[in-house]
Amino acid sequence: MRRWMLASVLGGVGAGLLVGGVGCRTEEPPKPMIRYPARPPKEVPAFLKGTIYEATDLEAVQPFAVSGWGLVVNLRGTGDSTAPTYVREFIVREMIKHGFGMKSKGMEDLPPERVLHDPSCAIVRVDGLIPPGTRKDQQFDVYVSALPGNNTTSLAHGQLYQMELRANGADTPNPAGNINVLGRSRGDIFINPAYALLTSSTQPSARASMRSGVILNGGLATNDWPLMLRIRQPEWRLSRALERRIDERFQEVADVPKKTGRGMGVAFANDEGIVSIYVPRAYRGDWEHFAGVMTHLYLDSSPANLSARAKELAAEAVKPNAPLMDISYCWEGIGPAALPFVQPLMTHPSPDVAYAAARAAAFIGDSSAYAALAKMGASGGNPFQLSAVQALGKLPNSQSINEMLRRLLNVPQALVRIEAYQVLADRKDPAIYSRVIGQKFVLDIVPSEGPALVFATRSGTPRIAIIGNKVEVGRPVVFTAFEDRLSITNASDSGNLTIYYRGHSVEDSIKTISRPDLVEVVARLGGETAPGEAAMDFSYGDVVGILLAMSHDGRLTTAPQEGQPGPVAFMLQETRGLENEIASVPVVENQPPSGSTEALPDFNATGDLPPDGNQGAGRPQ
Q: For the whole model, what pTM was predicted?
């Protein structure tokens, strides 16, 4: 009885306390955390209603800046390793890590401090921009610059030892502070070819230009960099729907494993607000094309809806000032269901409508659109002539498309011929005869009935192309460079050329004979030679500088047997200066993506530079 009564009393007290507590509480229960505030509805044209573009914002589309400190070797006595103490100590530690001064590595005669006192070496800053959507092991150009306050006069002919690129890696007080390695870099430095043959200059602009350069395809990404879709009205159901719709459209080119074991994918719903998007490798780094198609997909993929949308787009396309690129992307996203409405517009009298239709139909897979684009590419008066060739170049590699591109090698417009050549060369088409010169650059011989020209790249793969009729060095000729150390001479109107490089001693000097054919001259300069002869070994930047100087002197001509000899144009690839791009990129606050930073395979075919910086006998020093 007592136990029952005690329990009753305690129960009553507890109930009273509970009632009292409820009556006194004034605080509201905590609200759920909102990770992604809703954004207002996006205003879009009627034909974009129901698209991914309307429901989301595309983010992570800024290139990501990476940097670091590195060591350049093989300079022609123009280097200096003066650097802030923290940076110099970092470089010394890196050199020790790679065996400098170690007897076990056979480098006991090369302690770091001795190497750094050699004017053939320089400590440099290296900067790169990892493009949006970059995939692991994708290459990109990097910018190399001499340090402020040191006495490096030129980076021409220099080679960068392999080094690591990080976010804010070129932080002077803390040069190795960021542990995440986002890229690696190495290779030959390409400076402005107008100054590549000089060792010094009194002109301020030239001096500044000679202290910096680019390593073409010199960076290698160590991670995947996905694009991001930020859902404007965050919701898990919509996030998963976006993942399914994108994977459905790009299932044939998806190449990222799904963690759930559901095969390969492109889109990954992170949560209710973010979907990660991996650009398929089939797009060969063209993230803008992929993103354009992906964001213009209609969420309702039913056949009836897609057919109705394609018809609506066709009506919209012929209106004045129609947003034709958006419309073309929508057609491309719809796929084969759009062709009945797109094909009639390929012959529309308005060239912009015709191009938008032919472009979309071609990417859908309509072979008649390939011919339409090729016809535009051959039409000198068509405002979309170059765009049509570029569109053909983005299509899957096929014999029929390549045959169309080969015919475009003969058009009078130089830019069209160059664009067609670059596509065919990238596809390793047999019409382009390519040879690798000294593991430094590719030399291409391009058949063409158009005016002959010589072309050199300044971004991507280092390539020199001789396009058109046989090109040679005009004779008689007396050409000198590198402060008269290099001479190319022939005193008569016929016969072979004598190429002579005067080294620091008689033993270092090299003499070789070449036919005047420019293909052979370029190969000789790059390192090819007859058996038993010492080889020249000029860098890609050196050879381009020599060709530019010869062109300015009127030394590049067509061969006499090809008709009346005439001057041959030399053209450099147009590209915005990488240093300007790096300077214009805003600071990116988000953390770099996670990924493996394990050791990567060597991507420089010549292997690690030997400790003394020499790449074989006859290297110009």
A: 0.87
